[in-house]
Amino acid sequence: MLRAGRLVAFPTETVYGLGANAADAAAVARIFALKGRPADHPVIVHLDNPRYLHRWVREIPPAAERLAARFWPGPLTLILPKAAEVDEVVTGGQDSVGVRVPSHPVAQQLLTAFGGGIAAPSANRYGRLSPTRAEHVREEFGDAAPFVLDGGESPIGLESTIVACLDGTARLLRPGQITRSQLTEVVGELAEAGDAPRAPGDRSVHYAPLTPVELVALDELEARAGEFAARGEKVAVLAMRAPLRARRLMTWINAGRKAESYAHDLYSNLRALDRAGCVRILVQTPPQEERWTAVNDRLLRACGLGGCPHDPEAD
Ligand code: TXA
Ligand code: MG
Question: Which pTM value belongs to this model?
Fold first, then answer.
């Protein structure tokens, strides 16, 4: 199917991707059409092995070399100077290209069997939550759904950490499971994200459930939920503990206190709460600790408050 220019959704360790032959501009254009994504947003090229990097990248800066050696295969995307032959539909017209070597065995097998680069954004409609299960992809696209390779649940559940290595520096563009401290251990201090190259696009579009999301501190959670219930309005809660008392108009998910399992379940929990027919999703504010950075970033975006410089989750 990939060789015929068609789209294939596939599991990775982060989220499901919507893949096309990265060397076939018409096929990559189909990704944008299906997602409803603006043409100037670049897509990541997935490879099964870093030794094929030179086909896509003009130059591998030393910082990128070290990060790739340490974290690939894995949930890290590197933004690097693009090779001349990479089509602008992949790069959104920029002089750089995003590349990632995923570790998921199904992604690895697909890439190896295909034998080339697979361009893939997350397999959701533009502005919506990333899918972490095959059925999420089918829900997203309904009758228009592409072929989906079902690899079960994505083990991490949040999109990859993105680092740009372009001008002799390394910049964190999107937090993920790989933390800033882990990156710093490998390449030293990172440059400030503030002057990072930005993917163009409408920053007011945020990835989100359709139900409005509100962050609430733990000690205000019950009272805030009670205000909705008292008005006869259904309210959803994503908390880190069980409710003190059950309420008829309240749907409560206890996502626990462990950052890894919270992240793993975050998108499917938000999808479930979004379907519950509530006027609001109240989310207990997670701890402001490094291992919660990616979760906090995605939750801020879900509230429409934005996290990182170029609001990648709209993609
Ligand atoms: O975990 C992931 O990264 C998943 C899986 C499928 O690999 N993919 C993913 O792709 O999240 P996407 O397109 O939803 O988000 C990638 C982000 C986009 O915001 C895009 O703008 C940014 O990476 N990006 C890609 N290439 C870039 C480039 N050359 N310069 C700046 N940003 C880039
Ligand atoms: Mg995306």
Answer: 0.95
Pocket of ligand 1 (CB under 6 A): 12, 14-15, 17, 41-44, 77, 79, 91, 94, 96-98, 100, 120-122, 159-160, 162, 197, 199, 312, 315
CA distance 214 to 237: 10
Give domain 8-187's CATH number out of 3.30.470.20, 3.90.870.10, 3.20.20.60, 3.40.309.10: 3.90.870.10
**Cα torsion for 158, 123, 147, 133, to the nearest 10°?**
30
pLDDT tens-digit series, residues 101-120: 999 999 999 999 999 999 99
Q: From the options 3.40.630.30, 3.30.70.1560, 2.120.10.30, 3.40.50.11030, give the CATH code of 213-314.
A: 3.40.50.11030
| Residues whose Cβ atom is located within 5 A of ion ligand 2 | 122, 315
